[in-house]
Amino acid sequence: MHQRAKAINRSTIAWSNSQARQRVDDLRRRLAAFDANPSGQDGYCGYCSCISSDRIGGAAITTRPCGLCDHQMTFSNTSTDALCQDCGQANGLCRRCGADVELKDRRKPYPFEPSVP
Description:
- The chain has helices spanning 10-36, 46-51, 85-91, and strands at residues 62-65, 72-75.
- The protein is mainly alpha-helical.
- A two-stranded antiparallel ribbon has the order 1-2.
- A hairpin with a 6-residue loop joins strand 1 (62-65) and strand 2.
- The termini are far apart.
């Protein structure tokens, strides 16, 4: 594969600066939202809710079993959640990625784990 050289001039530099500043400003806005509410919202962890909120998926009806109860979930695109809403809520886990909603490493077992005697 061969690519053409990118034109570098005053105009392309100004455009690249503008795009980079917009991405930095967006990241700062997302981090401020995370700092204000690190436990996220709507059943998602703070990372999925605030930082990684842009989900891109292919245009295809997609089914996926819940990671805990195997309930078949249906989504309008290929960007799917890891857990169903009931399992996520009952266990305090992020529906999207499966992390703890508060992003904490817990010592006590989660409700889905068997009790250790």
